[in-house]
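Researcher: First entry.
Model:
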Amino acid sequence: MMQPNRLTASAVLLGAVGALLAATPAAAAPDTSSGRPGAAVDWKPCPAYSEGALRALAPPDRLDQLKALLARLQCGTVTVPLDYRSPRGRRITVALTRLPATDRAHRLGSLALNPGGPGGSGYLMPLQVIIQNDANAGLNTRYDLIGFDPRGVGYSTKVDCPPPAQRPERVIGTLSKDQARQLYSTQVAETAACGDYDPSFLGRLTTADVARDLDTIRAALGERGLNFLGVSWGTWLGVVYRTLFPHNVDRMLLDSVAIPRFDLTSFDSGRNAAAERNAGRFADWLAARDSTYHLGATGIRVRAAITAMVADFDAHPRTFTDLPEPLDGSLIAQAAAVNHYDWDLAGQVLGELRTAAGPTAPPKTKEVLGGDDGGPQGPPPADLPEQSNQTMNHAAFCNEDTARPSFDTAWADYQRRLAANPMTGRTLRFSAGCAGWPLPPQPVRIGPGGGELVLVGHRWETPSPYEWTIQTQARAGGRVYTVDDDVHGSVLHEPACAADAVQFFNTGRIDAGCPGVV
C-alpha cells in the first residue's frame, strides 16, 4: 500500500488495477476546539517481533537496519471517544508509535504518516519509509516520525465483520444481466450484514473521526501544530484534517491525491478513464516496437487489436490444459493497464495470446500465470502486524458515499464504463457499491486550511488520476508538485523525489516536480 514496488508478473496481470487507495469526500465545518484537554499518551513497550515477522517486513539487506530502528521506536495508545459528539460515551484506543528525531537540538516537531487505505496500518510506517529509501532518513533528522493505526485497524480498537458464508464463483467471460443481478443481490446482503454487525462502532469509521483522533494525538504529544505526510486515502485524511483543524497544521505533503468530491461511481469512472489514457501510451509504445510484439505498427492499430482481443476473449474464453482456469477479457484488459515498467512483459503476453492455439499456454503467459514459484509459501507469521483491514475499508467508503444504487443504476454505470474504456474497462468488475449499507451517509466537504500544503500528482497514474490533484487544489489551495510517472505514491520511493519532500519539511521549499519511477 505504501510502497510502489514493482509487482510480480502474476500479480500485475491478475490483480485489479486499483488497489486499496480510496478517497472519500464529504461536508464539515472547522472544529473550533483548540486541542484535546487531558489527552495523554499511554507509553508502553513495543511489540517484540519474531524473525519471521521481521523478514516479512524488510528485505534481507535491510533487516539489521529494521532492528536498529525498532530499538529506537516508542509505542503507546491514546484513549478517544468513539463518537466525539458524545465524549462521555463509549471509549476506544488508537495505537501510535514515535521514532524520535536524531538531531534533537534542531528538532522541528512531529510528522505524522499515513499510508492510505482506508484501512491501511501506519503503525510501523516510520520504520518502513526509512527502510524503503535512504533519502527518507532525512525526514527523521529534525522530526519525530509518528505512525498510527487508524480506528478499526491493527493495534487500535477494531471490529471485523464475519466473512460471508460463501463467495460466489467468478464469472468467466461476458457478464450477463441475470448474472449481474445475482451478484448484486449477494453483495447487498453481505454489505447489510456487515453494517448490522456493530453499527455503533462501524458508523464512526469515518475520515472525520480519524482526523479528530489525529488531533487528539497531536495534543497528547504536546504539539501546537502537526506536520503530516499522507499517501492515497491518506491524502483525503490530510485535507479533511486541514479543513477541520485549520490552525493546527504546520506542513503537509499529500502524495497521489484522492478524489475531492466522493461517490463510488465517479471514483470508479475516474480511475477507469485514467487506465484507458495510460493504455493509450502503452499502445503507442508497442507500435514503435511492432517488430517485437506484432500488435500493430500504429497506436490506432494497437488499440484496435487490444480492444478486439478483450471482446474475443470474453465471448470465447481460452482454456489451456496447464492453467488453472480459462482466460477471458479481464486478463487482456489488465495486461493493457499495467504500469510502464511492465510494458515489455505485458506486450509479450498480449502478442502470444493474440495467436495462441493451445492446447498448452504460450511460454510467457505460462510463466506469468501458471509458472512454478517454488510451492506454497505458508501462512504469514502469527505476530505480523495487520497491514490493512477490510471492514474499516468498507465502512469508511460506505459511511461517506451518499449513493445506494439500485441494480438498474449499477448495471447502467457498469455498461457505460465498458463502452467508454474499450481496452481497460474490464479491469473493474461489476459492483453493487454501497447498496445495502444500513447506516446513514456522512459526507464531508473539504475547504481551505492553514499551514503549508503540497499536493503531489502523478501525470499518468490510474488509482489517483492527475486531474484529482488539480480539483483538490481548487478546493483546498496549496501548491502542486507533478511527478512524471504512472506509479501510485512513488515520491518516497524515488531518491530525487524523496529529497524534495525532505527539503519541503525542513525548509518549506520544494521544486515543481520530479521524473518519478523511470
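Researcher: Second entry.
Model:
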Amino acid sequence: MKNIFKHTIVCACLAIMTMSSCNYLDVADNFEEAFKYDSIFVNKTNLERYVWNIASLFPDEGYKFDKLGSFATDEAFSIMISDYASLDFVQGNITPTNLRSFDIWNSMYIIVRKVNTVFANIDKATDLTGREKNELMGYLYFMRAYAYYRLIMYYGPIVILGDDVMETNETEDYYDRPRATFDESVDYVCSELERSAELMPDVVTPSYFGRPSAGSALGLSARLRLIQASPLWNGGSAARRTYGTWKRSTDGVNYVSQTYDERKWAEAAAVCKRIIDMNIFALHTVKKMPDTAPLPDNVPQHSFPLGAGDIDPFRSYSDMFTGESPFARNPEYLWAQRSSGLVNYSRHAFPYELYNGYATVSVPQKVIDAYRMADGRTIENSSDEYPYLTDGIWNNGTDLTFSGYTLKGNVHKMYVNRELRFYASIGFSGALWPMLSTSNLSKRNIQFWYNLNGNAGKNSNRNLPYNVNTTGYSLRKFVHPEDSWGAPGQGEGYENSRRLEKAYPIIRYAEILLAYVEALNNLTSTHTIQDYPLSRNIDEMRYYFNMIRFRAGLPGLTDAELASQETMQSLIERERMVELLHENARFWDVRRWGKYEITEREPIQGMDMDADGLAFYNIVPVNQTVARNRVVDKKLILVPIELNEIRKSPSMDQNPGYQY
C-alpha cells in the first residue's frame, strides 16, 4: 500500500507517539509502509518497484487546469473560474490558507524524503550490480531534482535538504530551516541534474517511453539556467523593482541577487550547447508530400535544416502534438509522457452541446495576432502577395487544401494567408473540424462558427451558458482529425467515436534552440563555460533560430534583425509565444523577462461574441466578470507557501505580498 497520509492525519498520529512537532520536513510514511522498509531493500526487485512508485507521485503534466500555465497568463481564457484553480490564481484568490491545487510543497518534499531514504539504504540490496546501481542512482537524483525544480517554479527559493533523511520524534528546532536564496536553489538543483545526467542513459527505448534520460536532465537544467539569467532574477531594474527588499530574516541576505551577472547567460548557453552537441535530438520533420503547401518565394528551397524545400511544415509541427507521429520515437522530445490529461484538455476545445466538448479553452486575440503571414511578415506589415485583410469574407468560392488541412472558401479574410502553425494550432470561426472517428456522418467535417447564432456560439448552448467559447478562438494544437467526442444520443461511453493517444512534451528540442539563441543574444563579451567559448555569435544565432523558422515554412532572419540585440530579443519572445503555445512556457517567460505586470494589464480581447454575421468579426475586450476581475500584482509571480508551514518554521519566510 502506497497511500500517503494527509498532513493533518500524520500530525495526529505522530502526536499519539509523543511527537512534539510536525511540518513538511517531518514527512513520515504511513505505519504499514514504515514497517516494510526492511523488505524494500532486501533485493533489487523490491527496490526498483519502490523507486518507480516514487516516480508515480509526480502529476500528469498534460493536465493544465489546476497548474500554473496557460490559464494563468495571456495565452488562454475561460469563465470557468470555480472549476479551474489557475483562473482563481489570476483573480488573486489563492492565499496561504486557500491554495487549492497549488499546495505542492508537502508532496514534493515527500518525494525528496523518499529518495533520501533510498540513498541511505541502497547498499542493502546486495544483488544490485554496479551498473544497475549507477543507473538507478541517476534516476533517483533526477526525481529529487525534479521535485525541487517544481518547487522553484512555484515558490522560488527552496529549503535544501541535501541527503538528510529527516527523522521523526525530534524537537521543533530540528525541523526549522531557512530557505536558500534563488541562486543557491538553482545552482543546487542544476548540479543535481548534472549528476543525474552522468548516470542516466542518453536514450530511452520506446518500451520505456516516459522515463527521463540524460537529455531530460540537461533540458531542465537549461530551462532553470535561462530563468536564472533573465532580468527578474539577475539584478537590474526588474529584480530591484520586484524583489529589492525581499531579504532572509535570519541573516538579511537578499533572496534575489541585486547585481547583474552576464556570466549567467553563458551558463544557460553552455547547457543548451551540450544538448545540441549530444547529436541525439532534432526537430521533428515530415517529408514533403504531393499535397504539401507551396513555399513563399522568400523561403529557402534548400533541404532542411538550411531551408524547407524537402519537408512538409504543417505536418512537421502539427503531427507531434496530435498523436499522428509515433511519439515514442520523436527525436524532438527531450522528455515527454503519455498523457490522459492532455486528451481531456483537447476535449475542452470542442463545442459543448452539439459535439460533447466543454468549449472552455478560449485563445485571446493577442495570440492570434502574434502569428505571422505565410511569407513571415507580421499582420501589421503584410505584403501585397499575402495581405492581412479585415474587410469581410474571403469567399473565393474554392476551398484550399494542403497537408490534409482544408481551409474553407467562406472564412473571414483575416484567417487567410497565415503561417502554417496558425492552422495547426488555432480553431477560428469557420475552421473545419473533421472528427472522422464518429460513426454519425452528420457530425463529420463540420465548420464551427462562434458568432452569436453559430453552431458553436452563445445561442447554441441553452443548458450551460458558461460552457461556451468566449473569444471566438479555440485550441486545435492537440486535436487530431480523427478525434471526436461523439454526438448527442451516443451515450457517455462515446463508443462511436475515439481520440488518439497523446504525449505531452515536457521539454522539446525547439525550446532548447530558442533558449540557446536568447542566451547568446544577451552576451556582450566572451565567456568560457565547460570548455565552450561563448559569445554573441551571429552565425550560431542565425543557424539555430532559422531551424525553427524553416520547420514552420517561414523565411529566416535578416542581417538587420541579427545586428540588433533589442530586435532579436523581441523576435525571440514572439517566436516562443507561437512555437511553445500552451506548453506551459508563457507563464514563466513573461515573469522572467520582467514583463509580467505590463503583459497582464493588456485587456483580453476576442471576437464580439454578442454579435452575429460580419459584426461578429469586430475585435473587442472580453466582457466577462473573470476578465474584469483579473488582478495585476507582483505577488502573483510566485505562489504562497501554506500558512501552517510558515508558522511551524520560524526561520522560513513567506513569499512577498502574501499576508500571514
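Model: Note on the second entry: The chain has a mean pLDDT of 90.
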